[in-house]
Amino acid sequence: MKLATLKDGSRDGQLVVVARDLKTACIADGIAPTLQRALDDWNFIAPQLGELYDRLNAGRAVNSFEFESQNCMAPLPRAFQWADGSSYVNHVELVRKARNAEMPDSFWHDPLMYQGGSDDFIGPCDDIVMCSAEWGIDFESEIAVITGDVPMGVKVQHAGEAIRLLMLVNDVSLRNLIPAELAKGFGFLQSKPATSFSPVAVTPDELGDAWKDGKVHLPLRSSWNGNLVGQPNAGVDMVFSFPQLITHLCKTRNVRAGSIVGSGTVSNKDAAKGYSCIAEKRALEMIATGEPLTPFMQYGDSIKIEMLDKNGKSIFGAIDQSVVEADGV
Amino acid sequence: MKLATLKDGSRDGQLVVVARDLKTACIADGIAPTLQRALDDWNFIAPQLGELYDRLNAGRAVNSFEFESQNCMAPLPRAFQWADGSSYVNHVELVRKARNAEMPDSFWHDPLMYQGGSDDFIGPCDDIVMCSAEWGIDFESEIAVITGDVPMGVKVQHAGEAIRLLMLVNDVSLRNLIPAELAKGFGFLQSKPATSFSPVAVTPDELGDAWKDGKVHLPLRSSWNGNLVGQPNAGVDMVFSFPQLITHLCKTRNVRAGSIVGSGTVSNKDAAKGYSCIAEKRALEMIATGEPLTPFMQYGDSIKIEMLDKNGKSIFGAIDQSVVEADGV
Fold first, then answer.
1. Residues A46 and A141 both lie in one domain
2. Do B80 and A80 make contact, defined as CB atoms within 8 angstroms?
3. CATH number for A145
4. Which end of chain B lies in a sparser environment, N or C, as judged by fewer CB atoms within 10 Å?
């Protein structure tokens, strides 16, 4: 099943069911007005959405219309939780190595995870609006899951059962604000502006064989200003699976329906697979030449993030955003 | 105006208007079913709630009933944002001094703030359920505001206009998990379990003269196992006002209606005012004797947090919780 949220002027948007080929959609209003509402009562609502999805795919849905990513908000335009892991430890090690910092060995068995802001997500084709290009604007291509309710202390073998939907993420980061902010010790705040998500969220079964062991075994494609700069396989070098990340988050508290848990920037040890964020490219340059050569994103730059299935079809639709300067700066 | 959310079996509870004396309440269902809904359209909804509040205070509200804190959820049982500052820099300096760590001078002009989990708040009288008493369970008595929409880059002189409501907070902390978690560099996650809030949220005008310069000029009373252990004045030694904290949060992103921004643990330089968290007491002991003497909270311990007006009347109702062991640990 594929779900999206259309812009309708409201804060939570309009839930729609989207056909597998992403060409048509159908309003789910008679079933659930918003995705959060569906997640709040998933076991009752999901089968009804699933029936509509089947009719839509069969060309039998009444009042279906053309689906356009440009009209999408994030599947959850605002969420009660956004916790982002750092599962591709290779990425962390590279970035640290570039600044001559040792990575603690514990990072290989104790996940890094930060609590992100979730009140103001932006849509897949919305502009990345910034007050300064000096902040070091970077994209981060990731995968995220949306959970149901998960009890405190959940065991890893049960955590996977709570995964309701998957999405792609652009976890925009302000690299030049990060060092001073992390040095204060309280984690990211100003250095993580509004996050964007793929047009559609999909149930795990949509991934077929590619969804295995709580990981997505497909390349995640990032194109910066139209050039493909990364296609690492999200199933390779992911040290912590999504169930492990959820278990980490649930150690001391309950996690409630509609929580979003991210994978962190997708990265393979094989450098030929390219990069999912500019910081990693710069880290490689730093290690090779002693200085970073590639600048961060500038006003007017674009970033496209997409994942194709084995037949070359887009699974989630594409995140496709441009960086623009805020009015009145 | 005073607002609360009653337990009704739903995730967001039932919005009620509460009389100024906290003795009676009235369902606001014809106006807005939940507090988030009221915040989403505050300029339209608040005047209607205000009229009901006036009728309730005058004893003319239809279907009013006895108000009981035990039936309350947090005013926002789940929220789209919870960002907690550390405005009482004295507290930060003390805790650091106890472990022989210098506090950077920048902490006096650049606020510390962390992004907290907001998907699973607990009510004012709900148990603090923990899987281990070895985690170093501590209370933290604070004040928080709930905001409306605030645009990215807001100036401090406008940030105060976005403050809709105030609450008390128990920002429960797991002290023995904090050092290792902060050392990882990504901020608090497991060391900050579910947060609880006062029974009612109040509009700033309810504080009268005590609301001045974006600070609450009244003592915040913390009683641990029935003993008053702290009554620092929240208006004293608050280095960053609420408008300054909101401005900090908005530097790189929009903040949306229903965001909660906290003051951090209230603390006065005058040690005679006592403490709002055990960590501070232990820091003072460490500085005086070389070792912390007071243990953290144990199963069965209680914590009561309250603020009285100049006539000795409770403004927000009391947070009054006990620590209990999770089932099946």
1. no
2. yes
3. 3.90.850.10
4. C
